Amino acid sequence: MKSRVLVVDDEKLIRISLEDKLVKEGYKVTSLPNAIEGLKILQSTSFDAVITDLRLPKMDGIDFLREVKKAYPDIVVILMTAYGSIENAVIAMKEGAYDYVTKPFSLEELIIKLQKALRHKNMIAENTLLKQQVLSQYGYDNIIGKSEAMKQVFEIISTVSNRDTTILIQGESGTGKELIAGAVHYNSNRCDMPFVKLSCAALNREILESELFGHEKGSFTGAIKTRRGRFELADGGTIFLDDVDDIPLEMQVKLLRVLQEREFERVGGEETIPVDVRVICATKKELKKLVQKGQFREDLYYRLNVVTIHLSPLRERKDDIPLLVNYFMKKYAIRQRVDVQSISQEALNLLLLYNWPGNIRELENVIEHAVAFCSSRTIIPKNLPINVVEGNAPSGIFPIELSTIDSIDLQETLGEAEKKLLIWAYQKTQGNQVRMSEILRIPRTTLQNKLAKYNITKLCLSASEWAQ
């Protein structure tokens, strides 16, 4: 289908030359002498792109751009400007123009910019459609996953969102705890009220108390005015307390009171302030173990642990990796304005073998890096960060740095190593079980049991489908 382009320029010769060139390139073109007529035709005809001069009679190019982007945000706009007006062109870019060319310019230069702009437009449309399709099948709002672990999370969110129960989200750093909290809030009957977030990590008692409950003017040095705390700001809505495991013991009793009585006093204040707020907390540690060590109040633990959502680390739900890779790849291709569309099987294999200590946050960073270094349409292993590539060499030896840790889960570590070797053997032999048993030096019946245990066949086939 031919793209439709609107050309607006008061210089007739430029208009005619540009229209002729674009028609020869296969575009449907309409050319007009001013922006007023341009806005009028946009009301009745659908266009993919607008090429407009910056200096126009009746309405200049900047105002024309604003009107176009306000009414038709999907249309890409390219500006033509004289050399001395480049500053205005930069302003126009901030207003939403895709690009600009300075006069005099070659028609070939403009055509190249137009082609790039239209590809960018199509990528945005495709990504929007992809996101809608992905989320309709595997996601809950902006959370993506098709693994059984994530399906259970989605089910809990669907069940408890409209109930005011306190929720505790457990998971390692980078697993998406804040996204889950947001999904609960924005799918609840409090969605039109505030969603207030606070990380409790590394805050001392005085700062945390002021952040949570606010303070009165003059209550301590530096308190030059009365300040409302996060609970007060969240009244009617939801408060999300991340890293709740870091709250000092002496502050935990005050948090417990708010949960029980739904009221508090500001620091240095005497007035008791009632509050209607839903509380969602997140922790990267097991609170029950902290309770046993005397580092977390038992009564607060039970008050928080009404509904628990456990987020599995990415290494335990690798079925989600191809889906997440595809989503992040499209996201950063659009953001960086590059035409990256796929990932090679070899690169995806490396991502599946990697252990992901930073979880989804680390995966997103890796894909952003890969898109930035990709010089073609397909991400290949050399585009990945070196630690991901080197961390997956199937040498048969899995070095573990033990100097910085106090204990290790032996079964989990052995299982992860075994899974990596099975994936390596499957990919090396293209799933030939006779060859796999030979290179792994185990009986075929043992191999089949292990393949079933770790769901290797499904995992590798899923990766192969997404890489295509």
What is this structure's SSE topology?
Elements: E1 4-8, H1 12-24, E2 28-32, H2 35-42, E3 49-53, H3 61-71, E4 76-82, H4 86-94, E5 99-103, H5 107-138, E6 139-140, E7 143-144, H6 148-160, E8 167-170, H7 177-186, E9 195-199, H8 205-213, E10 214-215, E11 227-228, H9 230-233, E12 238-242, H10 249-261, E13 263-264, E14 273-274, E15 278-283, H11 287-292, H12 298-304, E16 307-310, H13 321-335, E17 342-343, H14 345-353, H15 359-373, E18 378-379, H16 386-390, H17 410-429, H18 433-440, H19 444-454, H20 456-467
Parallel strand pairs: 1-2, 1-3, 3-4, 4-5, 8-15, 8-16, 9-12, 12-15, 17-18
Antiparallel strand pairs: 6-7, 10-11, 13-14
Modified residues (4-aspartylphosphate): 53
GO molecular function: ATP binding; sequence-specific DNA binding
Pfam families: AAA_lid_14, HTH_8, Response_reg, Sigma54_activat
Strand content: 5-15%
Low-confidence stretches: none
CATH architecture of the largest domain: 3-Layer(aba) Sandwich
Q: Span from first to last CA?
A: 25 Å
User: Please, how many helices?
Assistant: 20
Class by SSE composition: alpha/beta
Superfamily (CATH H level) name of the largest domain: P-loop containing nucleotide triphosphate hydrolases
The description of the largest β-sheet is:
5 strands, parallel
**CATH fold field value of the largest domain:** Rossmann fold
Shape: flat
User: Strands of the largest sheet, in order across it?
Assistant: 2-1-3-4-5
What is the CATH C level class of the largest domain, in words?
Answer: Alpha Beta
Number of strands: 18
Secondary structure: helix percent: 40-55%
Number of domains: 3
